[in-house]
Structure formats: C-alpha cells, structure tokens
Amino acid sequence: MTLRPRKARIVCGIAAAAFLVVFVALGLALSGPVNSGPATFGTGDRIAMIVLGVLGALGILMLARPRVDADASGIRVRNLVGGFELPWSAVRAVRFNRGSPWASLELADDDVVAVMAVQAADKEYALQGVRALRALHSAATAAQAPTGSAPPAASASSEAASG
Fold first, then answer.
1. Domain ranges for the chain
2. CATH number at 67-144
3. pTM of this prediction?
4. Which of 1, 87, 109, 112 makes the best surface tag, with the fewest CB within 10 Å?
C-alpha cells in the first residue's frame, strides 16, 4: 500500500506553477535600463530570473515529497528530508494523535518517526491510511508472536537458578 498527502500535493503543484509563471514573466519583461541610472537588465539577468523560478518551483514541489510504502514485511517512510525503512517488529504503534499535523510511528526503542505522508488536512483519507497501517502492523506482529505457552528451556533454568 502506498500513501501520499493529497491536499498538500495539490497546493504545492499550484504554488509551484504560479511561482514559475511569475519568474518567467519577470525574466521576459525585464529589459533595458534600470530607472535613469547606468545599470541595465541583460540576457544573463533574464536567464537568471527564469532559473531562479525553476529552482523555486522545484523547492516548493519538495514539500509534496512525503510518501509511505507498507506491506507485510515492513514500512518505508520518506519525509521532506531523509527516510526510514523499518520492519514491523521495530514498530510499537502507529499513532495519529488529536491535534497532530501528521501520523507517527512509535518505535520499540522509544523513538518517534513522523509519517508526513498521512496528514490531518486530508481528513478521511488520512484516517483510512492510519487504519490500514494499523491493520498491517497488527497482522505482522501477530504472525511474529510465539505460539507456544511454555518458556524455552534456557530461560526456565535461569529463572529457577535465580529464584
């Protein structure tokens, strides 16, 4: 299963397109002298404005980068910067606390990993995503749980010696 933010991707796409259009228009419109001074806008300045527009638009699109891929073996989280690949055994819980901007993973070592792809702004889509992640986590941890009720022989003998 793959999860990506919906509203953030739409907003980022529109903002990046608008940013690019404005900078390309500025780059094409700037020419000639500046005020009444000796400075002039040349071809290099025009190209620089267009390049700045492209770089700014790419920066805005980076905000739409978060993604989560999960399956029975584990979860792969890609946030704005960096990412994590974790087996379900390393995840203690999938959280989506009230008032949180996005979901998070509580790890077995008490660390918390933000899951920016599941955002509160997406409302029902985010809730469905969290429920699906919780179901995958439950199924994976249930499959890894030991089935026998008797403790292993090594731990039984160490308990008897300490006890």
1. 2-62, 67-144
2. 2.30.29
3. 0.71
4. 109
